[in-house]
Amino acid sequence: MSATSTVKVKVPATTANLGSGFDCLGAALTLYNQFRFSLSTREVLQIIATGAEADRVSTDASNLVYQSFTKLYEHLGKTPPPVQIEIAMDVPLARGLGSSATAIVAGLLGANRLAGSPLSPEEVLHLAIALEGHPDNVVPALMGGCQLAASGIDRDWEICDIPWDRSVVPIVAIPNFELSTAEARRVLPNHYTRADAIFNASHLGLLLRGLETGRSDWLRSALQDRIHQPYRQALIQGYESVQSAALNAGAHGMVISGAGPTLLALADSASAEAVRSAMSSAWAGQEVDAQVKLLQIDRQGAIVE
Ligand SMILES: Nc1ncnc2c1ncn2[C@@H]1O[C@H](COP(=O)(O)OP(=O)(O)OP(=O)(O)O)[C@@H](O)[C@H]1O
Ligand SMILES: N[C@@H](CCO)C(=O)O
């Protein structure tokens, strides 16, 4: 048995894409899942989940936290030890807030610490990206803040910390229905026009400067996108009403959080509460139960202790 027998991991929710940053930009939010990994003397895997949606995650070997835990040991060429995993869930499942990224990041970090920390943070990050399939949730979940990931030349990934002005407040409107990432990716086209590629490249550049400065006019334009949102809006009942309500209440703009169905508005501090209330009423008017929260950017990322 290694010197450490219990590890606690806390991982933030994340909002990916932010409009024009499809599959490359994401930010960590002040909403968390917490995990405890304990080496066990019992051979049988034990997974105990608590929280609002705890009955929705599997508690057998198909659980994504355990799958990621075993992947790290496989990567080391070792057999995973018997383990008990406790999961305290606050990040809702399949809503576009990076629940799968919290599971992957926790499984890898828990296993790495129990194995005596053989992998560097960069190696864990690369494994996490490979497991999730795209970097925009797992990178901010691990590192905190707002992060841009681009495939590199000297290394697999160049990761760039994007300054986020404190005046820019994220407001998440989380409906009570799920939309899996797999389903929301199926509706996307395989090819785009040159005009759409230029549109997204220019708006992503503007978005990065808008987030850094908090300039409303830049953010207002920058949050537009032609790669994923036009194809996904129809999967989200009430999208247009909630968007109009957010903009009328003074939001800089509103986008689909990750693959949806959560909608993310960005607003300045003075308008944030009015935007929260307007989004909540708009979804109630569509007979959709939703939780609408003012959050902040988590600056720390995943914590292991
Ligand atoms: N805490 C958890 N424990 C075990 N499995 C989890 C946990 N959280 C998420 N999952 C798995 O991840 C799936 C959801 O992943 P999916 O990519 O569809 O949504 P998401 O990660 O919440 O959203 P997005 O990627 O758009 O931000 C769940 O159905 C479940 O299988
Ligand atoms: N970039 C991903 C995030 C969700 O995992 C998508 O929008 O499909």
From TrEMBL:
Binding site for ATP: P92, L93, A94, R95, G96, L97, G98, S99, S100, A101, T102
Gene3D superfamilies per the UniProt record, alphabetical: 3.30.230.10, GHMP kinase, C-terminal domain (3.30.70.890)
Annotated catalysed reactions: L-homoserine + ATP = O-phospho-L-homoserine + ADP + H(+)
Domain GHMP kinase C-terminal: 209-284
GO biological process, one term: threonine biosynthetic process
GO molecular function annotation: ATP binding; homoserine kinase activity
EC number: 2.7.1.39
Root EC class: transferase
Cytoplasm in keyword set: yes
Location in the cell: Cytoplasm
The entry's keywords: Amino-acid biosynthesis, ATP-binding, Cytoplasm, Kinase, Nucleotide-binding, Threonine biosynthesis, Transferase
Pathway participation: Amino-acid biosynthesis; L-threonine biosynthesis; L-threonine from L-aspartate: step 4/5
Keyword Transferase: yes
Primary role: Catalyzes the ATP-dependent phosphorylation of L-homoserine to L-homoserine phosphate.
Family classification: Belongs to the GHMP kinase family. Homoserine kinase subfamily.
Cross-referenced HAMAP family: Homoser_kinase
Protein name per the record: Homoserine kinase
